[in-house]
Write a structure and sequence with these properties.
There is one protein chain. With 423 residues, the chain is mainly alpha-helical. It has a domain at 2-6 and 24-155 and 230-256 and 280-335. Helices cover 59% and strands 7% of the residues. The protein contains 14 helices and four strands. Strands 1-2 form a two-stranded antiparallel sheet. The chain is globular and about 65 Å long. The two termini are 42 Å apart.
Length: 423
Amino acid sequence: MIYRLIRMLQAEGINFPGMRLMDYISFRTIISIIFAMVFGLYIAPRIIHRLQRKQIGEEIRNLGLEGQLKKEGTPTMGGIIILLSITVTALLFSDLKNVYVILLLITTICLGSIGFLDDYLKIVKKDKVGLKGKYKIYGQIAVGLIVGLTLCLSGDVTVKQKEYTKTFSEATGTQSKNEGDTYVNVKSTVTTIPFIKNNHFDYAWLSPFKGKARQYGGWVIYILVIIFIITAVSNGTNLTDGMDGLSAGVSAIVGTAIGVLAYLSGNAIYSSYLNICFIPNSGEVVIFLAALVGALISFLWYNTYPAQVFMGDTGSLAIGGILAVAAIVVRTELLLPVLCGIFFMESLSVIIQRLYFKYTKRKYGKGVRIFKMSPLHHHFQIGESEAIIKKPRNPIPEAKIVVRFWITAIILCVIAIITLKIR
């Protein structure tokens, strides 16, 4: 709103010192981080107090983990703090006419609402199941469909590519395709693929059709990929939310890395130099991610060990969705297995654990576990076990596990950014 107000004043010829600073992505990014952080720190104690007063506390199942039962009754649904900080900051400092900001706001509100309903049913209504898993998936698919169709149909969603000209050689009688110096906005399913020198990949290449139908088939494939990515990253973030500060800290690191990639993709000079997709107007994604990072930092103030509040599904589902949509928008979704490596490993550990346990139980009559416990972060909290992977022999304190996961996330994000030059 502040951004739009200043633009309106500028259009009317009204100027005052410092007004033009709002035109710079870098300035609004810094302001967004600071405002989201301060706003989050301001509202957090009030929301935590209200949650305590209404006795909206976490119910803990005794899984034999060290210090687990001490968390009984800790206020949950703290994701409200994160979502409010993000939304208010984005409304104030981002361009609300930007299609990417609109998509990120829709993702935040929709997935946050799904998570809120799940937490409400579990904590307030005392329903142990909460919102059934299939309904969560349906909601994530719906959000993915909205994002995919918007990217497909909106005229504001384009990729800037160099214009090619065809020349005819009289000597050889053949045509050649030459790269020009001018850029044109095109609707495209092109994305950036890591580790490859000619690193542009087009989903239309996977289409079984030819001619114009090939591009339509590419859009269908692209939309299906978007749905899968949003669902996977959202659920991966949710699974990672099992220790004090783990999901929030990792998400802040990943959000920062995607913000760097978004800034590069929205800059004509940097994108051309690095040979990545130039996405016009994607700089606003940086503002939104700055709000996310600022909100997560403020939340970590109360969520680090020992946590005073948990984010619950209200926060984790929305955060995962934001990270996924932001990566999709700037065409770096194929980097997500590296960027979101922690979320990927957490999800994979759950899938492997369940499949192998069911397989061995069906074949031998007794289920065998690969990990001591899944998701992966709980594996390190348990000492001696009959699981296949027995290390570490001694349980590791929760705070140490969280910090080590943060360090791993930083390393993975650095690797992802380095891939821009390693091809």
